[in-house]
């Protein structure tokens, strides 16, 4: 038996990076239907964000989340911590809306209304205005440092910083009255937490929109990772028609490309150049795609120049593409059971929330019995002391009448009417007395009723316990 010696093979070490090295993307400007919609949403969201903070309502800021006084003002509505349920409802509505829109048409939120997308678009517009179009920016970055390059870069970053700090200032203005915040900034007397959040939010905007851009969508946003769970073959997505487009290749406009065995794609690369995340949609749907539709605008523009039919890249569904469904058949499948369930659930929750707000009682009452022992009066009556807290959520001074029921002859010994200031609360003791023998020894349920004197429909009833000693 021949023994073959085993010769050890040297192991070659291979160094691998955990993340792909970033290649800077220079998106090309593109005009078209989807581009116009994106800019319309950019304009709308920013007017809403920057403008709402300066609106007034009843001589105060229209939308203000005052954490110090624990009051949340939303135009004519004043919410207190006890109304936390509305925040939960808002989060549920937001989640269901996201599920519904994603199931119907993919990542519409990402492409048109996500703050990362919106501010990246604004920052790139500033970059284009200062440094030039795509080719000019590529040449500028490749050129050595010069006085011109330094001045252009400095101007761009200065404008970015001003916009970012203004964004942080506006954000803080929703939690500290913005006029008060303005005075504090001009007087260099900002508080510590206002300073922190203004700078934090400002520099987050500057870093995310100015530098990280598509990296936030690729690596930081969780939505890109779980979107596949909300997609199916009847979800509208940005799709390249492979059957029509392949094989791709350049050609003369006057030559019959079909006779040459080519598809409609001229391999111009514009769909890649306009993509803000730098993907090639011709390779199929990728998680980096934010469904902005700019590749559709770019491709349609090339199809028009070549005299070809539009729609080589279009919004469609996988089933519509593979089964060659017409528009009506595709839309019938888009509004399927999943989307109908999401829509019905969303509609019911919105309706319930709207009705709750419409019939929202602008009066809140808490009753707490004093821990002291009941007092026996000279005539044999029994007194219990309670602490009442009355919250007036209206922005006018209100008068409330207090009464008690549940035991025959029960009465309030001290004041039965109180005034509560605008959007404020008061707490005070209330002495309740019953005649001798009106209730058995032990505890008996009683009810306090608080009624608005000038609006009797505004009333709250709270339960309490009346103790009778042995």
From TrEMBL:
Transmembrane segments: 37-57, 84-105, 158-178, 340-361
Protein's UniProt keywords contain Transmembrane: yes
Domain 4Fe-4S ferredoxin-type residues, every copy: 253-284
GO MF annotation terms: 4 iron, 4 sulfur cluster binding; metal ion binding
Keyword set, alphabetical order: 4Fe-4S, Electron transport, Iron, Iron-sulfur, Membrane, Metal-binding, Transmembrane, Transmembrane helix, Transport
GO cellular component, one term: plasma membrane
UniProt entry tagged with the keyword Iron: yes
Gene3D superfamilies per record: Alpha-helical ferredoxin, Immunoglobulins
InterPro entries assigned to the protein according to its UniProt record, in alphabetical order: 4Fe4S_Fe-S-bd, 4Fe4S_Fe_S_CS, Cyt_c_oxidase_cbb3_FixG, Electron_Trans/Redox, FixG_C, Helical_ferredxn, Ig-like_fold
Record protein name field: Cytochrome c oxidase accessory protein CcoG
């Amino acid at each position: 038996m021949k023994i073959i010696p085993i010769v050890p093979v040297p192991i070659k070490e291979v160094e691998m990076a955990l993340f792909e090295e970033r290649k800077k993307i220079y998106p090309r400007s593109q005009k078209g239907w989807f581009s116009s919609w994106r800019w319309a949403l950019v304009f709308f969201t920013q007017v809403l964000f920057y403008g709402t903070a300066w609106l007034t309502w009843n001589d105060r800021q229209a939308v203000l989340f005052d954490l110090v006084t624990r009051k949340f003002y939303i135009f004519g509505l004043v919410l207190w911590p006890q109304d936390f349920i509305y925040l939960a409802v808002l989060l549920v509505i937001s989640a269901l809306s996201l599920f519904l829109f994603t199931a119907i048409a993919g990542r519409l939120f990402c492409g048109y209304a996500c703050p990362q997308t919106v501010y990246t678009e604004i920052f790139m517009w500033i970059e284009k205005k200062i440094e030039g179009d795509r080719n000019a920016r590529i040449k500028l970055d490749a050129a050595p440092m010069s006085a011109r390059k330094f001045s252009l870069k400095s101007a761009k970053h200065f404008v970015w910083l001003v916009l970012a700090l203004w964004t942080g200032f506006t954000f803080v203005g929703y939690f500290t009255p913005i006029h008060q915040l303005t005075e504090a900034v001009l007087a260099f007397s900002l508080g510590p937490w206002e300073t922190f959040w203004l700078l934090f939010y400002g520099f987050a905007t500057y870093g995310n929109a100015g530098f990280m851009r598509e990296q936030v969508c690729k690596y930081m946003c969780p939505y890109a990772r779980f979107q596949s769970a909300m997609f199916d073959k009847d979800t509208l997505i940005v799709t390249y028609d492979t059957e029509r487009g392949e094989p791709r290749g350049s050609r003369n406009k006057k030559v019959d490309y079909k006779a040459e065995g080519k598809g409609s794609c001229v391999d111009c690369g514009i769909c890649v150049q306009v993509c803000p995340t730098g993907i090639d949609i011709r390779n199929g749907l990728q998680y980096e795609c934010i469904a902005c539709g700019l590749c559709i605008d770019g491709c349609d523009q090339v199809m028009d120049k070549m005299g070809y039919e539009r729609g080589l890249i279009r919004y469609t569904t996988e089933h519509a593409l593979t089964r060659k469904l017409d528009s009506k058949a595709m839309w019938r499948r888009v509004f399927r059971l999943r989307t109908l369930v999401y829509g019905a659930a969303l509609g019911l929750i919105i309706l319930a929330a709207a009705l709750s707000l419409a019939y929202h009682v602008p009066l809140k009452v808490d009753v707490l019995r004093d821990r002291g022992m009941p007092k026996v009066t000279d005539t044999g009556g029994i007194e219990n002391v309670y602490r009442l807290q009355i919250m007036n959520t209206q922005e006018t001074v209100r008068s409330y009448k207090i009464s008690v029921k549940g035991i025959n002859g029960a009465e309030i010994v001290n004041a039965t009417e109180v005034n509560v200031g605008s959007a404020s609360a008061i707490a005070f003791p209330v002495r309740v007395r019953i005649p001798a023998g009106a209730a058995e020894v032990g505890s008996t349920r009683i009810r306090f009723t608080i009624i608005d004197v000038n609006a009797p429909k505004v009333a709250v009833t709270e339960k309490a316990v009346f103790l009778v000693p042995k």
